[in-house]
Amino acid sequence: MKRKLLATALSFSMGATLLSASDVIAVVNGHKITKAEVNTFLRQSMPNQPITYDMLDPKTKKKVLDGLIETEILAEAAQKAGVEKNPEFQQMLDMAKKKLMINAWAKDEFKKIIVSESEAKEFYQKHQDKFTRPAQVHARHILVKSEKKAQEIIDQLKGLKGEALQKRFIELAKKESTGPTGPKGGDLGYFGKDQMVLPFSKAAFALNKGEITTKPVKTQFGWHVIYVEDKKPAQTIPFDAVKDRVIAALKQQRFAEKMKKETELLKKKASITIEGAEKAAEETPSK
């Protein structure tokens, strides 16, 4: 019976040893760098991306591992130089420890905050203005240096409609436009009123779909001929499209409020004494 128990214990021990050995990625002067250590580093470096060591490509693995090896070597050198005995280092270490504890505690507190879908929907319904996509136009333009040249282009386009107008406009944009969108037929894609300079935006939004400006439009960039390819009216973004963002924002808001109240409460309960010059400064009334 004893032999059986001993064999079981040895088997378990060997399994644990093999498991830990497989997790060791490198050994630096006797210090083992494990996957767990690397994963902790990755979580701290990229908190919004749940990436582990095993998910990295070989090139990135090498880069991350080289960084940790260098950190270990430099840390050993600093330790041998007696940095740990430096009072300033101890103060910095103490401050870093406090910040890490606060961050860990705050993270746990944040996890406790629950925002239901119904609460998020209520906020969404009460703040519809925050979830409105403004009106947009899809426009093309031809940019030239002179008003005369712009008017000549408009004259060439007069009388054209529909696909014929669009096709000819694109041809002229590629041939005549001095702007960076010229090779793409002057295509600017969709944009809102506040995304372009005022004279251009005002002229573009005044047009109907399939129309061009009847007069050249002047901006600081030159003279424009504008063609509106499509228009989208202002519309409310559906709740399902913003639900996750609303829940995240409400959680963050409640967390900030909770931490503020908690801090104020703890300050009231704490025994705080201001000493020296700082005490005199606090007692001096402000003018």
Helix/strand-derived category reads: alpha+beta
Parts with pLDDT < 50 across at least 5 consecutive residues: 1-19
Largest beta-sheet details: 4 strands, antiparallel
Q: From N to C, what is the helix and strand string? A: HEEHHHHEEHHEHEEEHH
Strand order in the largest sheet: 5-4-7-6
Query: What is the share of helical residues?
Result: 55-70%
Task: Briefly say what this structure is.
The chain has 287 residues and is of the alpha+beta class.
Question: How would you characterize the overall build of this protein?
Answer:
The protein is an alpha+beta fold and 287 residues long. Among the domains are: 18-81, Helicase, Ruva Protein, domain 3, CATH 1.10.8.1040; 135-233, Roll (Chitinase A, domain 3). It contains ten helices and eight strands. It has a four-stranded antiparallel beta sheet with strand order 5-4-7-6, sandwiched between helices. The chain is elongated. The termini are far apart. The model is unreliable at 1-19 (pLDDT under 50).
